[in-house]
Predict the 3D structure of the following.
Amino acid sequence: MFGALLTSMRPHQWVKNLFCVAPLAFSKNLNNLELALLSGAALAIFSVLSSSVYLVNDLFDIEKDREHPTKRHRPIPSGRLPIGVARGAAAVLIMVALGAAFPLGYPFFSCAAGYLILNLAYSLALKHVPFVDVLSIASGFLLRVFAGALAINVPASPWLLACTFVLASYLGFGKRAHELASAEREDRVSSGARPVLAKYRLKHLIVILWLLAAATCVLYGAYTLSPKVHIAFGTERLVWTTPFAIFGVVRFAQLTAHRKGADSPTDAMLRDLPFVLNLVAWVAAVVLIIYVI
């Protein structure tokens, strides 16, 4: 039963909470042990919170997931994890996360609570509204960045917030495009486990993806060329990392278009060797330019 519970908590998705650490890295405090520990605490708290959200969402979607060709094998809809256990675990995780958030300050606690409320609203209603569903997910990434900044008491960079929101929107609409294309191939748009897909049009999503892909690359490039960024980091070399960002955006588009068997392109990219190697290279390049060179 513990294995089924751990699977439902989606620990492989905790990588998304690394956005909590972004303010630490881009405020040049990565080598500050005290702030690094606070940032790590924020990362851990949001990982626990996100796991509780996955459990709650699976409980709300249990009947629909049982009709889905792949989601029906998840622990809760398949019966491997009893509903009562899942409810109890979600409640415990929420209490643990919010209890741990309070010592980091009321602003951080409010941000963590806001993230939880936003996701509960998503599970109850927002996920059924086209475009609002994806924008609410993107807002969750913004709250991660805000929380990471509040945990170490540094201002959240407007550039970082803008890049985060556009990138998260790009990933979210990419996932919807992938799901819709898969549903249309299998002729289950109306009867699928995600009813909101019937309210989207694939040609509209493709246009949105192109626009968001361009906006993501332009915003990141403009960030690396910003005079304020040059002054803050004492170097103009951050622009060298732009090709990594462009490759990541293009690679995600390829995964969205060609990974027909994957449950979602966001899951596929975490298993895609070129994408992962590019991500590691980007992180290494950023750290070298900001902290070493």
User: Anything to note?
Assistant: Residues 157-293 form one domain. The chain has 14 helices and no strands. The radius of gyration is 19 Å.
